[in-house]
Amino acid sequence: AWPDPDACAPPLRIGLIDTGVDPSHPALYGRGLIRETVRGPGLQASSTAHGTALVTLLLGDGQRPGLLPAGDVV
Length: 74
What we know:
Blueprint: E1 12-14, H1 49-59, E2 71-73
Parallel strand pairs: 1-2
């Protein structure tokens, strides 16, 4: 059972430090998402699978509600 998502009043900004996030994922279309790359020069980007999964848990994926559906991830 998820906690009440209305308990955190919008606008709520969620800071996430993880792997990249795939903004083209259907669950993230039109959602508040700001991405910044902080890896050093010459380093290869990691997979976006983990970061995308975390963001969909937070915001929801269209089939299941997220923990903070009104949030923006920065």
